[in-house]
Amino acid sequence: MVSKAVRFSLVFLVLCGLFYPLATAGLARLIFPRQAEGSLVRAGDGTVIGSDLIGQSFTSPEYFHGRISAVNYNASASGASNLAPSDPALLDRVKADVARWRADNPGQPVPADLLTTSGSGLDPHISPEAADAQIPRVAQATGIDAARLRALVASHTEGRTFGVFGEPRVNVLELNLALRQLLGR
Amino acid sequence: MVLQVTLTLLIALALVVPTGRYLYRVFAGDPALGDRVFLPVERLVYRLIGLKDPGESMGWKDYAAALVLSNAAMALLVYLIFRLQGLFPWNPQRVGGMEPILALNTTVSFLTNTNLQHYGGETTLSYFSQMAGITFLMFTSAASGFAAAIAFLRGITGRPLGNFWADMTRFILRVMLPTSLVMALLLIWQGSPQTLSPFVQATTLEGARQSIAVGPVASLESIKHIGTNGGGFFAANAAHPYENPTPLTNLILILAMLWLPTSLVYTFGLFARNARQGWTFFAAASLLFLVLLGNTLVAESRGNPALHQQGLAGASMEGKEVRFGPAQSALFATVTTAATTGSVNAAHDSLTPMGGFTAMVLMMLNSVFGGKGVGLMNLVTMAMIAVFLVGLMVGRTPEFLRKKLETQEIVLLAIVILLHPLIILAPSAVALVTAAGKASISHAGFHGLSQVIYEYTSAGANNGSEFGGLAGNTPFWNITTGMVMFFGRYFSIIALLAVAGFLAAKKPVPEGPGTLRTDTSLFAGVLVGVIILVGALTFFPVLALGPIAEHLTLVGR
Question: What is the pLDDT of residue B29?
Answer without folding.
Answer: 84
